[in-house]
Amino acid sequence: MTENTPSLKEKLEGSKKYLQNANLKESDLEGADLEGALLVGADLSGANLKNIFLSGAQLSKANLSQADLTDANLSGADLNKSNLQGANLKNAYLRRADLRGANLSETNLTKANLRECALYKAWMKNTDCSGTNLQNIKGSQTKMQKSVFKNSRLEGADLSGAQLESTNFEDAGLQTANLSRAVLKGANLNRADLRGANLRYVVGLTREQLEPALIDKKTLLPSYLKIKWASETEFEFLDEKN
Fold it and tell me: At residue 2, does pLDDT exceed 60?
């Protein structure tokens, strides 16, 4: 290879509109500028994508499994039905990205920013979202079993109908979140802030789970959990233990 031969990264940066179904498996694209690139159906599995700039990129049905996307910028990217299983997205910026139907199972999303993302029917089983910003996400019917949301921000999130069995929400901010019809069996709500949240029609929630959480009079509770308020945030249960 001569000194003037362009690298793969440089070639791709000059071919942003012609990368559909490209085979880039295990490629080293660290720091590449692929803003708005057309990567529909591309294979980027196992690739080094640290610090990559993919804002507004078209990545629907792309394979990003096991890829390293640490500190990547995917804001506004179309990741509809993409495969991100086992990928590392620590500190990644995905604000307003389209992740509907995406596979995010076993993915590292610690301290990432997913604010206002579309996550309808996404798969997020065994996913680490510790310290992640998930404010105002559209996560209706998302599968999040056994995932970790410790210290995460979920204020205003739509998690209606989500499957949240054995999910860890310890110290998470869930103020005004919509959890109506969600399944919360075995979920850890220790010190979770549920003030103003909608818990109406949730399935599997027990008083033992709710007691260490923070709720207020604006929190909408399921009919099977009846409480008497002593103050704005202090209460006692009136029904028998579940």
Answer: no
Tokens 């990003």 belong to: 64
**Which CATH code is given to the segment(s) 147-242?**
2.160.20.80
CATH for 20-123, among 3.60.10.10, 1.10.150.120, 2.160.20.80, 1.10.3720.10? 2.160.20.80
pLDDT tier at 3, thresholds 50, 70, 90:
low
How far apart are the two ends of the chain, measured CA to CA in Å? 70
What pLDDT does 123 receive?
A: 97
Determine the pLDDT at residue 30: 97
Among all chains, which residue has been given the structure tokens 């299983």? 85
Task: List every span in the chain annotated with CATH 2.160.20.80.
Answer: 20-123, 147-242
Residue of 20, 51, 13 lying closest to 35 (CA atoms)? 13
Contacts of 208 (CB under 8 A, 6+ apart): 241, 242
pLDDT digit string, tens, across residues 8-31: 888 898 888 889 999 999 999 999
Cα separation values, 154 from 42, 54, 133, Å: 31, 24, 7
Buried b (16+ CB within 10 A) or exposed e, 187-212: bbbeebbbbbbbbeebeebbeebbee
pLDDT, residue 242, reads: 43
